[in-house]
Structures are given as structure tokens and as C-alpha cells.
Write a structure and sequence with these properties.
alpha+beta; seven-stranded mixed sheet; 4 helices; globular
Length: about 230
């Protein structure tokens, strides 16, 4: 009898359930179109989003597809509907955690519960709506998100570590809260300085990736649309 010792094989979880094998490109991303990512200062990012009331609709399917496609081109790990200008409580995620496991899915009408007894860890965090800026931010390391999928089926995600950070970030987007709102005035200034230096290069890379994926790139204004 032979024995094999080595690292555990990473697992992919789709909406919290094991989904191996799973394609490298999320099927929704293949179908979706690339949208412009809204930027800090635009009202839709700073206003609580509306609850989704109708499920299994073509419009909701297109929204999820477009979110995944836009997130892929921007090389993000999560994206909320207000970040493509839609004021609905929907976000998508594609996160590889510290163990190498991949978490993929979307949540509609999410409710975030933060375990306040869990450790608070400070790590670099960014936001696709503040392109190119990364600043240290403390987040709790254990959260639960409950909601439904686009067809109204129940979703419950228990997250730790980096995955918990991503779910917290995206859930708070739907309340009109950006990671920016948790920062000190000094860190906010630093984030904007980084954004001003890096934005053009980040947007050029998004354009190149869209073309590589045979998708029409999104059009961005020369200066941030939010005015900051």
C-alpha cells in the first residue's frame, strides 16, 4: 500500500457548498458585460441600496452576470451592485482564502452579522471604487452573512479571516458605507493621493483585460466621476 503525504487539496465552495471541479472563469462572468465601476463621491455609493423584491427575473440574472464580468476585469474579489450604478442589495464574490480554498457566489438582500468577540486584524484593504489605493484597516475575523440567491433560495455563509473581510466590505457597500468611511482623516488623504497617482494605470489595465477576454471595455471619465 502506498501513502501520499503533502498539502491538502484546495476546495471550491459555491454559495457555501462544495463545488469541485469548478471552472477558473465563473460562468456568469463569461455571459456578462463589463460596466463602469462607480467611484467614491458618486451618490449611489453613499446611499443605502433598495431590497430586491422580485426574483428569477431576466433583469436580476443580467445584474449578477454583469457584476461577475466587471469584477473579473477589475481583478477584484467582490463587487456590489451600487459599484456599477445599481441601487439594489446584491453583491458577488470570488475569494481565495488563507487556506487556498476558493469561495464563489452572489448574495441578494444580505444581512451581515459580525462576531464582535472574534479577533480584530489590521491588514491592507482597497476598494475598486477607489482605484489603486490600499490602506491598513482593522476588521473582525468572523462573520455570518444570510440572504438569498437570485431565485430566492436561502444562502448562509460563515466566514473567517480574509473571506470575512471581503464579505464585510461588500455587505457594508449596500448600506452606503465604504471602507473609506472607517479610515482616519490622514488615511483618507493617503488613499486619495494613491488614487490620484495610480488611477490611470489601473483603468488602462482594466481595459486591456476586457479586450483580452473579448469584452467591450467600460468607458471612464478622465477625472473621477465622484469629484473627489
Amino acid at each position: 500500500m502506498g501513502w501520499t503525504f503533502g498539502r491538502r487539496r484546495p476546495t471550491t465552495y459555491l454559495l457555501g457548498e462544495v463545488a469541485d471541479p469548478y471552472p477558473a472563469q465563473v460562468p456568469e462572468a463569461r455571459r456578462g458585460r463589463v460596466r463602469r465601476i462607480t467611484e467614491i463621491g458618486e451618490p449611489v455609493l453613499h446611499t443605502p441600496a433598495r431590497a430586491v423584491e422580485r426574483f428569477s427575473t431576466p433583469e436580476l440574472t443580467r445584474l449578477v452576470d454583469d457584476l461577475f464580468a466587471t469584477m473579473e476585469v477589475a481583478q477584484g474579489v467582490g463587487l456590489a451592485a451600487p459599484q456599477i450604478g445599481v441601487d439594489l442589495r446584491v453583491f458577488v464574490y470570488d475569494v481565495t482564502d488563507e487556506r487556498g480554498d476558493r469561495h464563489v457566489g452572489h448574495v441578494v438582500n444580505p444581512v451581515l452579522t459580525i462576531d464582535e468577540s472574534s479577533e480584530a486584524v489590521t491588514d491592507e484593504e482597497g476598494c475598486l471604487s477607489v482605484p489603486g489605493a490600499y490602506v491598513p484597516l482593522a476588521r473582525r475575523t468572523a462573520v455570518t452573512v444570510r440572504g438569498v440567491d437570485q431565485h430566492g433560495g436561502p444562502v448562509q455563509l460563515e466566514a473567517q479571516g480574509y473571506f470575512a473581510r471581503a464579505l464585510t466590505h461588500e455587505s457594508q457597500h449596500l448600506d452606503g458605507t465604504l471602507y473609506w468611511d472607517h479610515l482616519s482623516a490622514e488615511d483618507q488623504r493617503d488613499a486619495l493621493r494613491q488614487r490620484d497617482e495610480e488611477r490611470a494605470g489601473v483603468l488602462a489595465e482594466r481595459r486591456e483585460i476586457a479586450i483580452e477576454l473579448d469584452k467591450k471595455p467600460a468607458d471612464y471619465p478622465e477625472r473621477p466621476a465622484g469629484g473627489r
